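[step 3/7] fold_predict: job queued, chain A
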Amino acid sequence: MKITVVGSGHVGATAAQRLAEKHLANEVVLVDIVEGIPQGKALDMWESAPVEGFDAKVIGSNSYDETRDSDLVVITAGLARKPGMSRDDLMATNAKIVKDVTEKIVNLSPRTKIIMVTNPLDVMTYVAYKASGFEPHRVFGMAGILDTARYRTFISMELGCSVRDIQALVLGGHGDDMVPLPRYTMVGGIPLTELLTQDRIEAIVDRTKNGGAEIVKYLKEGSAYYAPSAAVAEMAEAVVHDSKRILPCAAWLTGQYGLKDVYVGVPVKLGKNGVEYVYDIKLTDKERAMLYESAGHVKESIGKLKM
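[step 4/7] structure written:
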């Protein structure tokens, strides 16, 4: 198993480290255009192998030649958000970067699968899908797991309970109009609505929607990377081990939820073939309207692309 991570910034480098430490590949390749950075970070990671107990080779490169025959590619390359910057502000520049990266990857690894991390995530997943020429199940985005993790963390903070006992679901685009679903949220098998008042649930939902911006505000420069890289590793693990995990990911819709020809966050079955099934769960009229609005914003952004 060979996994390539494109982009050696905080998200990419941390993702590469997690992939190696979780024994998900025999070889992890870290690629970046900045000379020396991927080589230095990769060597540093490889030197941690005797301590962490993994045998994966970790290779840094400025060339895509090292990525040849990758089984899985994680794309994190692109500009990061700055305070006051929306995900949409990133779109035009990052679309060019993602298109170029995807074309180079596909040329050397025509049978790979792609996990998109670059923002605005749903739109960049579409860019990679179009640029690759792949079947849509081989190109999917990370955001739903990250959004759900933030949602579960905030619930855990509120209730003072283990995050392991919280099951939750977040749909929609990765942005301010994501759609957390309290109705599908359980804590140790108990519906969240029986444990918290409606106003507290709404406060948690609002914090989840602004979870990325909250971290950007603290950091001043750059954005989150520990939680995003953990989400990447969970997705990669599902693919590598063919574990058929049911996870929220940005997936291509072909009529599910009454939506088609758009990437948006929905629950999917993730295995060795990528997105193996999209679950079309029942929504209330309000939930469906929120999902339509979120998907509509993604479609609107896609319409602005020049590809």
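[step 5/7] annotate
The chain has a mean pLDDT of 95.
The two ends are 32 Å apart (CA to CA).
exit 0
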